[in-house]
Write a structure and sequence with these properties.
This protein is α/β, with parallel strands linked by helices. It is built from 18 helices and eight strands.
Length: 513
């Protein structure tokens, strides 16, 4: 088991391994909008969840609101909006002792959900005497410009203020004003974030080094743009997660896609597929079912945790192992599609309480993340013929652009993120002007392919674990945590402690935990 310590330079192949955005590959027969949109786990933040069966640590916070600028980069008189943030000062040692402030960079969803699934920050705050702040990303949760979601999402003009740059400026303005109001201007700020939030945390450290002294960016695929990493790496890594458990399981899934399409073309094929997969309504196309399965396989790879979890769905430890066990364990004579149903039920119905499955009603539904994907968060995805268990697919920017024009009347800017935040030749670039960033990645996470997997300098380090999944280090500790995960978190704590000590030495203070 790999010990989670700063790595020496690793082979270039691992450096190219890639990020919690998801492009389901289109089928040979048709393409739908969902095929083009990268998806992180934020889509789950607004869903009503069943009562949790696993014991969850209790977190306490106060909900507050801040009147935020709609556009930080112009001087036009525009309406402000209420940005929600969660705050806990219970363990903060206060401004006189320069108590640190831990700020989590909110993702593409309801901030309460992210706060509840980021136990690491809450657990270590008492050790540091830290304040905890979870600001919500604009256009998500309750932080809606123009007074309501309907108006905010009404058209491209209203959505034009939904960018990563504006979100980072929100966080910078909020924490600056909060510190001023508390007479805490001298208190150091440490950033945290996972997935898209991890990207924001690393970018904020680089863009606002005078506001935050360091950042822990977990599962942050900041290299998943343009031609920095191979476009097929995400789906190759999903496929590898299945293949490492069972070659026959991998092959069964790989062979199933063509059978779905051929069955769907039969006169009663869609009805039979609907019955086999216990869908609440009859399918309109086989592609809808393919998308549903594709998403499940990808999310299973992201949350392939070594212990039971309910982050996205109630799942067992190493859920891919259980999926493959069920696929391979069917009696002789079981059809391929029936095997797939048995396996996919681990993700969609592990508790056995679901009577029928409801596919997404509106894959074209306008939401914030679709807009971000159609403007600046353009991450090319493809599926290789041999290494992937998914249908072969070559990335087609022209088709992607047509979909964005049709749905949002906007053209994507595929090179804007790397222009604004960098990414090309990142090691040479960040070594010159960056510092105090932890990039943590688990190699079971398909988004690790777009992550930073080797040290850049003494203070910009990569913590890479062979058995880690999507931002597992940010989740609450459990008694089932493997030793490598315990060690990884201790390494992160020590690095953060070092940043704060260095800051205090410069301020001629003393810090101890």
């Amino acid at each position: 088991m790999a010990k989670p310590k700063p790595l020496d330079p690793i082979p270039s192949l691992l450096l190219l391994i890639a990020l919690i955005f998801l492009f389901p590959p289109p089928s040979a027969a048709a393409s739908s909008y969902s095929k083009w949109i990268p998806r992180f786990t934020g889509k789950f933040s607004g869903q009503t969840k069943p009562k949790l069966r696993l014991q969850q640590p209790q977190i306490r916070y106060e909900t507050r609101y801040f009147d935020q600028n709609l556009d930080h980069f112009s001087f036009s008189e525009l309406p402000r909006f209420r940005q929600r943030y969660l705050i806990n000062t219970e363990h903060w040692v206060g401004p006189q002792r320069l108590g640190p402030i831990f700020l989590y960079c909110g993702n593409e969803g309801d901030i309460v959900w992210f706060a509840e699934n980021t136990g690491f920050v809450w657990e270590i705050a008492p050790r540091f005497g830290a304040m905890v702040v979870f600001p919500e990303h604009r256009y998500y949760g309750e932080s809606m410009p123009f007074g309501s979601r309907d108006v905010a999402y009404k058209n491209a003009s209203n959505l034009s203020y939904l960018t990563a740059e504006q979100a980072l400026a929100d966080y910078a303005v909020l924490i600056t004003e909060l510190k001023r109001n508390l007479s805490a201007e001298g208190c150091p700020v440490v950033l945290f974030g996972g997935s898209y939030g991890g990207m924001l945390a690393s970018w904020m450290r680089l863009k606002y080094p005078h506001i935050a002294i360091g950042a822990l960016a977990s599962s942050a695929p900041i290299l998943q743009f343009e031609d920095i990493v191979p476009p097929q790496i995400f789906y190759d890594l999903v496929s590898n997660d299945f293949k490492r458990e069972s070659t026959s399981c991998f092959n069964t899934i790989k062979e199933s896609w063509g059978q779905f399409l051929s069955e769907g073309e039969k006169s009663d094929g869609l009805l039979k597929l609907s019955e086999t997969f216990r869908l609440c309504r009859t399918l309109k196309s086989a592609e809808d079912l393919i998308d549903w399965l594709d998403s499940a396989y990808s999310y299973l790879a992201m949350v392939n945790y070594p212990y039971p979890s309910e982050f996205l769905m109630p799942l067992p430890a190493y859920p891919i192992r259980e999926v493959c066990r069920r696929i391979d364990g069917c009696p002789v004579g079981t059809s391929t599609l029936e095997r797939i149903f048995e396996g996919i039920s681990v993700y969609y119905n592990y508790t056995g309480e679901v009577d029928c499955f409801q596919l997404d009603d509106d894959p074209h539904g306008m939401d914030g993340w679709n807009w971000q994907a159609c403007t600046e968060m353009v991450m090319p995805m493809s599926c290789s013929q041999d290494s992937s268990m998914f249908p072969t697919y070559d990335y087609n920017f022209t088709s992607f652009q047509e979909e964005c024009l049709k749905d949002y009347n906007v053209k994507p800017r595929p090179i804007w993120i790397t222009t604004e935040f960098g990414g090309h030749d990142i090691k040479a670039t960040l070594r010159k002007f960056g510092s105090n960033i932890i990039f943590s990645n688990g190699l079971l996470d398909p988004w690790s392919g777009g992550g930073v997997l080797q040290n850049i300098s003494e203070s910009i380090v990569a913590l890479v674990t062979e058995e880690g999944a999507h931002h597992i280090d940010l989740r609450s500790s459990t008694k089932e945590d493997p030793e490598w995960l315990v060690e990884q978190r201790e390494t992160e704590i020590n690095l953060i402690k070092g940043w704060i000590n260095d800051y205090y030495q410069e301020k001629k203070g003393i810090f101890s935990i």
